[in-house]
Amino acid sequence: MPHRIVFATQHYQYLKDRILSLCGDQCENGKLEIRDFPDGEHYHRILSNVGNKEVVLIGGTIDDQETLELYDLASGAIQLGALSLTIVIPFFGYSTMERAVKYGEIVKAKTRAVLFSSLPNTSRGNRIVMIDLHVDGITWYFESGIRPMHLYAKDFVKEAALEMAAGRPFVLASTDAGRAKWVESLANDLHVPAAFVFKRRISGDETAITAISADVKDKIVIIYDDMIRTGGSLIHAAESYRDAGAAEICVITTHGIFAGNGFQKIKNSGIIKRIICTDTHPNALLIKDDMLQVKSVAQLIVDALALETFS
Amino acid sequence: MPHRIVFATQHYQYLKDRILSLCGDQCENGKLEIRDFPDGEHYHRILSNVGNKEVVLIGGTIDDQETLELYDLASGAIQLGALSLTIVIPFFGYSTMERAVKYGEIVKAKTRAVLFSSLPNTSRGNRIVMIDLHVDGITWYFESGIRPMHLYAKDFVKEAALEMAAGRPFVLASTDAGRAKWVESLANDLHVPAAFVFKRRISGDETAITAISADVKDKIVIIYDDMIRTGGSLIHAAESYRDAGAAEICVITTHGIFAGNGFQKIKNSGIIKRIICTDTHPNALLIKDDMLQVKSVAQLIVDALALETFS
Amino acid sequence: MPHRIVFATQHYQYLKDRILSLCGDQCENGKLEIRDFPDGEHYHRILSNVGNKEVVLIGGTIDDQETLELYDLASGAIQLGALSLTIVIPFFGYSTMERAVKYGEIVKAKTRAVLFSSLPNTSRGNRIVMIDLHVDGITWYFESGIRPMHLYAKDFVKEAALEMAAGRPFVLASTDAGRAKWVESLANDLHVPAAFVFKRRISGDETAITAISADVKDKIVIIYDDMIRTGGSLIHAAESYRDAGAAEICVITTHGIFAGNGFQKIKNSGIIKRIICTDTHPNALLIKDDMLQVKSVAQLIVDALALETFS
Amino acid sequence: MPHRIVFATQHYQYLKDRILSLCGDQCENGKLEIRDFPDGEHYHRILSNVGNKEVVLIGGTIDDQETLELYDLASGAIQLGALSLTIVIPFFGYSTMERAVKYGEIVKAKTRAVLFSSLPNTSRGNRIVMIDLHVDGITWYFESGIRPMHLYAKDFVKEAALEMAAGRPFVLASTDAGRAKWVESLANDLHVPAAFVFKRRISGDETAITAISADVKDKIVIIYDDMIRTGGSLIHAAESYRDAGAAEICVITTHGIFAGNGFQKIKNSGIIKRIICTDTHPNALLIKDDMLQVKSVAQLIVDALALETFS
Amino acid sequence: MPHRIVFATQHYQYLKDRILSLCGDQCENGKLEIRDFPDGEHYHRILSNVGNKEVVLIGGTIDDQETLELYDLASGAIQLGALSLTIVIPFFGYSTMERAVKYGEIVKAKTRAVLFSSLPNTSRGNRIVMIDLHVDGITWYFESGIRPMHLYAKDFVKEAALEMAAGRPFVLASTDAGRAKWVESLANDLHVPAAFVFKRRISGDETAITAISADVKDKIVIIYDDMIRTGGSLIHAAESYRDAGAAEICVITTHGIFAGNGFQKIKNSGIIKRIICTDTHPNALLIKDDMLQVKSVAQLIVDALALETFS
Amino acid sequence: MPHRIVFATQHYQYLKDRILSLCGDQCENGKLEIRDFPDGEHYHRILSNVGNKEVVLIGGTIDDQETLELYDLASGAIQLGALSLTIVIPFFGYSTMERAVKYGEIVKAKTRAVLFSSLPNTSRGNRIVMIDLHVDGITWYFESGIRPMHLYAKDFVKEAALEMAAGRPFVLASTDAGRAKWVESLANDLHVPAAFVFKRRISGDETAITAISADVKDKIVIIYDDMIRTGGSLIHAAESYRDAGAAEICVITTHGIFAGNGFQKIKNSGIIKRIICTDTHPNALLIKDDMLQVKSVAQLIVDALALETFS
Q1: φ, ψ of residue B81 in degrees (nearest 5)
Q2: Residues on chain A touching E33 (C-beta within 8 angstroms)
Q3: Which of C185, D21, D136, E234 is the one with CA 20 to 30 A from D14?
Q4: CB contact (8 A) between residue B104 and residue C257
């Protein structure tokens, strides 16, 4: 069996450590030397031998530096003779810029997919592993020479919901119409009702939310959204559910970005009791607050890597 | 200005004729010789000179023969020195097989996108024009060397809705959660309420529909769906709206496929009063019934071809 | 040694079974789920795990549906992580449309070769195996990234000839000038005389056949042609040999297509005593008649797959 | 209209001059600086400005130096911004190594086609023009991104035959079974009988020729072959026709290579009265002998370049 | 003549303005909408119509954000139908990481060249224009489908040298052995002596500089280096020339990066009297000090764009 | 472990033999059949089975025939199913034509790199191994899909220098400014002084050499240059060192080409006492003279092949 070696970009070392601790002897800890120069250039050196090894490279496209670090490390591993390359992108940045609404808008989700698809192939081929993409189709934005794999953290959501509900009846709720289908599906799996929020435009950019389903009254409402960025639309939705009589509002999200003071804003709103997210984005680890619980996707990734194939 | 010449596959000659009649002298009518051999092979010959011309090729991926005819004619035009190639696919088949739900499912929307992306480039590049895709993201399933363009028949939907409503108040309704976002957006544009249908799984494959929004009672409900195939889910949704007290139910769809006896089944249900669809699929033209009105997308396509660029 | 798994398109299941029965435990029987939708779309799912296996996919380009089924299954196997992909095309359709005689004719043999060449590569590369191509050069119509292999069923022809002759002297004969070289070579291998048919154009499309070599008189004439489609030119040639005094006329062909009522037409002509063909085309298996004997190419394919290399 | 500029490799300057003299003001004479270094390296510089011009580059793959000179000049023109590139290869070397007969034989016709197909594309695309290929299919050995064009010098053959016959009846004859089809077609066009030569293997490499058709007796036999290399098989065939009673034997060939002392050998045999060939190979121009007449293909090439398209 | 439109990344707007002011009516000012989101994502929209226009895009690879902005804007222009794309990279970052000295070092100059080479081609092709690359060969690190052009700012250096010398005799000097060839060439063009600095390693990383050529004594020494980053090696070299008796030391550099407090460090050293650099890097414009004079490369770029070809 | 098999072009059989003798049983001796035809075409056949083997192919781009032989053999090995392909080019011809100085010069180092990069990939990828390139950057002229490796024969140079010095103090010297950096580095490694030669242009092409560093007086000067072609610039440099008082002048070079009567010219000059070179170019082996010592790079290549990776 070929040797597997795991590397991560600078911000994802924590996830590499968690993955390695689950792998036991089966994975080697990939060593890098990274230095920054005063002129803004970065020096990257792969210290471990990667020749004829299965290289796993973990990194999110969370900002420009991480994106290019991921691209450069991947290029290096390929050049140094990696047998295969699996790029694990726990959080795929720009997944909300996945289509052009106005003329000239640059569809970043496509340009990033093309960027990683342009890497030369390793002997055993290149693969991309992503988790809970904002839009399913992004899986196929990648060019045909690379094999993408989309992991669903459905089990995480279900477990988090059951943990939050703690035996009490609850409603699974969406933040907007875009996620209606997914929440419908999750609610059906959990055998609970689904609640939805729709918006009606009043004038210009002003919208009024219409919380659908009268059945949130006096019930626990668990909102699921794939990501929380600034928390704005989450608070907006939560207010609707509160106004509709929800007894308690909890939140589950896969990607806890909490950009800027996003987390504090949510906390200050006082509407949401508790949040559970995963560790797909390094920001989530920076917040130390009882209101937020972070669960790791390390096992989900380890299980996917164990497969010899992709669905 | 380069000369433009328009060809169509066998089933789309009607659309070519409509487009040519709108173009006046600006487009040449492309001639083909097509013959079928007893062994199932087809002979294709491009009779018109296409060298240094802008070639427009119209054809749907409505079945295997049309798909390969489109591929072969495109290959021929490229080989014969076409200056540019624009493939207009009014109905993009397999757009509902746009992701794999189970291991091993072949994502046909991707394989078809890859198929057309593999055509060698013409001097001015190859473009693909599609209309009201079931899933937006399919636009970006094409490889980066070809330029896809997604046309929205929004104006058709709005005009059809206003024509059906004839001044009376109405609700714009969806058939399932998957189109919730789109219907929300259309309803906001029309300044009318939106109604949605959600399904709760009862056991196994059995689902109960929950028509949301009490406001359909005694109102005209105009259901919009991007395509009608066998009509099954449409009838199911319409029943819900009827049960919720809708005064009258009309239907707008972009792609009228009406596979098998689909149209007759809808008509026999007696729930739907009227249907308006476009001519993106040749099946719609075969139905001669007062209940169905077919409007052409020819002008929409002509306008898109007039652009020098794609958004 | 990597695991080998064999799949076939719907019409070639019989050949897969024959190949598997020759392989013993060395090959796995690949399972598929195939369903047809009322709107003409087909659902394909690869049920067996193909990750890191050597995938063999059997299918002829006998019609449009089979061609796209082959393309889709190949795409699926690649996406699911097949280690290598060998596409066995026992009968390569369109092999007579291998050049353009008039302006604008689409060279289907090239477009089909390009179609399969556009498949993304597996780790160990993609290969195409074909048998007795109408024109040798088609082997190299494939693009340079795929490895084609042309199998010659010469042994089948020789054995069939010796079986038909049953010890009696015979002449090996061609149907037209295009196969002169091949028949010359076969006749030399068998140490028998070769007979040839040439055509002289009389006026327009009317041609008069000139059976060369007086030595067919009172002899057994065994005509070899690579394929029998409608049987027209075969009957034409046979008549010439009969008129030249042949004692008995038998026919060997690799590809027995017998399009339409081709076989019945040949039988009704009463000139040909016996035909031996292979099972490269599923049509041959549908004919149950003592006059026709079908021999399998399964062993020829199994032997080729056993090679680690291609010539 | 874009500006056209014509270059040639060192051995094909004569053909460039002939083409330019037919073009008048429509083509610019492309200037090169070529120097050889003592270590076997060659210096190539394109002196004329080729930016945004239609570049025509003439050169045969007659030996290794010419082949790489063609490749290098083409690379240079592309890099310098040529609008389009048409490579005219009057004689395509290695066209008889177009398939592998034994394991491991390198199919040079394919490797050369791949070599030229690997050139990056110009804006208007790259084209290859070839004349009377030994095997038609080589046209499609080129990869799909380049557009090959195969010119047939049929008119040259017909005119040469009529000129040689000078009103007397004649037979058009082949040198071996491989060209049977082509000679059959030419003979039909000329409304004359066709004669063919077949070989029977006696033992090992020894073959006995069987001149078919008794009708060469006392007639003028005009042998057509696509190329004369050493003249061996031509003399062999001519002897057969002489033995069969031919009154006079003349020869037409497209490519007069006359390798080594080929021409002298033919002349010394005393069997052949006269030869007409074209100037596709520079060797033909080196022979000054009344027995050989060389006609230029310049007009054929000029006509092809005038087309905006390729069949 | 096609329409030309010029865009720049955020940091290079000043250079776009200078170029546009030199172009007059011949170039359109390309408009962009750029916004930054709190989560580190950037929104880019091309507001101007670029369809069928010659797009010029100016931006340096000065840091990760600029690099990806350049990549995204280029992707957008291609997708929107630009006729041609010329990317002007006045300062090509990572040009000193142009080879690997130790195992595993990532050759960023190559990965950046590959990154831009992976952009899909426009109709008229993509070009890259760079200025005074640290290593000439980087021009050819780009893949063969894109056309690179390397501009030499030799005239700027010569004029700056003559301006600094103001009629007084001077010596042109290098900072290290790596630029010896270039300085030799420049000195020869200016008909002045060349001075060189070489380093001898004393122990470990400690090096002693050996200023060669005794002829700097009492002379004006003008040091040329392609870039000044932190100024460290420049000061080191200047000290050597001072110690060797130079009367006055001035500096010319193409790329004035002055990372960190680089400029202040040079100024504080008190050894260098005056510096002239170009505006290829935006940092140079931020320094307001009489000691530094910045000359624009705008005209050099405008002249290059006017060429229809690349050398 | 996969089987390794070694082939060489005709001129490099000696190096294959040396490599095989160092490999013991680990490498198979690859057999070829090569024949030349009278018309200048070459027949190549790979006799050994290469399927699923690691193919090593040795050949220099020393002239056109060798270059195409290398290309054809590589193409053949790929087509026949080689598992991996490593092309060892001990002397990379055209490495001094690595940039264009004047408009229109064809950068052969790039066109050759592109030529070999265009070979289709083997399963384990294609690699190029080169030794002491004239310009480092050529390593990255290859396209991104192939993995280049640049071997430095530094140990050879050091050992040769120590052997020549035989304990006596010496100076390591360069022939021109272009190699200054490399000689500086080597001298530092050897803890000896470095001497450099610079040229000042007097008028037109006439240059005067300025031997720098007074310390060559009465010392042994060992000149290192990467290649000796005609020996002209070497003799020129040596004269300078002699004039500067050198006690003895020896020469080390990696690539001993000695084009034309190069070696004799050097010998006749009487200035140089001794030369040591490697066997990267077959010319070096043809010279039998006590003044020249040839050391093999076989071990250097064997060591590189033993690595599973490339730096």
Answers
A1: 90, 25
A2: 104
A3: D136
A4: no
The per-residue b/e assignment along C78-95, b for 16 or more CB within 10 angstroms, e otherwise, is bbbbbbbbbbbbbbbbbb
Q: How confident is the model at residue D213 (pLDDT cuts 50, 70, 90)?
A: low
Q: For residue E118, which residues of chain D lie inside 8 Å, CB to CB? A: none
Residues of chain E contacting A102 with CB distance shorter than 8 Å: 45
Residue F85 contacts residue F123 (beta carbons within 8 Å): no
Instruction: Give residue-wise pLDDT tens across range C156-212.
Output: 999 999 999 999 999 999 887 777 778 888 888 898 988 887 777 666 666 676 656
Same domain? A133 vs A8: yes
Interface predicted TM-score (ipTM): 0.94
Residues D91, D199, single domain; the answer is: no
E291 in a structural domain: no
How far is it, in rounded angstroms, from Cα F295 to Cα F278? 5
A134 and A226 share a domain? no
Taking CA–CA distances from B81, the nearest residue in chain D reads: D309
Distance CA(C230)–CA(E253), nearest Å, equals 80
Q: How close does chain C come to B110, measured CA to CA in Å?
A: 9
Q: Note whether residue E72 is domain-resident.
A: yes
Weakly modelled stretches of chain E, pLDDT under 70? 1-2, 201-207, 209-214, 308-311
Strand, helix or coil at A105? Answer: strand
CA atoms within 13 A on the CB side of F178: 11
User: Residue-wise over D245-263: b if at least 16 C-beta within 10 A, else e?
Assistant: ebebbbbbbbbbbbbeebb
Best residue in B103, B111, B142 for a mutation probing chain C (most C CBs within 10 Å): B111
pLDDT at residue C176, as a whole number = 78
Judgement on whether residues B14 and B139 belong to the same structural domain of the protein: yes
Rounded CA separation A29/F203 (Å): 62
CA–CA distances in Å: residue F258 to residues B51, D208, F273: 53, 53, 16
The answer to whether D and C touch (≥3 CB pairs < 8 Å) is yes
pTM, rounded to two decimals: 0.95
Spans of chain F, pLDDT less than 50 = 310-311
Cβ pair B102:A311 closer than 8 A: yes
A111 and A44 housed in the same domain: yes
What subunits touch chain E, counting only 3 or more CB pairs under 8 A?
A, B, D, F
Establish whether chain A is in contact with chain B, requiring a minimum of 3 CB pairs below 8 angstroms. Answer: yes
Orientation of helix D180-190 relative to helix D154-165, angle to 10°: 60
Query: Does F105 touch chain D if contact means CB atoms closer than 8 Å?
Result: yes
Per-residue confidence in pLDDT tens, chain B, 311 aa: 568 999 999 999 999 999 999 988 889 999 999 999 988 899 999 999 999 899 999 998 899 999 999 999 999 999 999 999 999 999 999 999 999 999 999 999 999 999 999 999 999 999 999 999 999 999 999 998 899 999 999 999 999 999 999 999 999 998 877 777 788 888 888 989 888 877 776 666 666 766 566 578 899 999 999 999 999 989 989 998 998 899 999 999 999 999 999 999 999 999 999 999 999 999 999 999 999 999 999 999 999 998 765 43
Tell me how close the Cα of D53 comes to any Cα of chain C, in angstroms: 27
Touch between chain A and chain E: 3 or more Cβ pairs under 8 Å: yes
Per-residue pLDDT, averaged over A99-128, amounts to 95
Range of the domain at F45: 4-151+298-307
Which residue of chain B comes nearest to E121, CA vs CA?
B145
- D partners (3+ CB pairs within 8 A) are B, C, E, F
Taking contacts as CB-CB distances below 8 angstroms, the residues of chain A near B151 are none
Residue A90 lies in a domain: yes
E99/A contact by beta carbon, under 8 A? no
- Domain with A39 in it: what CATH number? 3.40.50.2020
Number of domains chain D contains = 2
Q: Tell me: do E13 and E89 sit in the same domain.
A: yes
Flag whether E292 is in a domain. no
D64: left (phi over 0), alpha (psi -120 to 50) or beta: alpha
Query: F residues 107-146 near E, CB within 8 Å?
Result: 107, 109-110, 113-114, 117, 135-141, 143-144
Instruction: Say if residue B183 is in the same domain as residue B223.
Output: yes
Task: Let me know whether D87 and D54 are in one domain.
Answer: yes
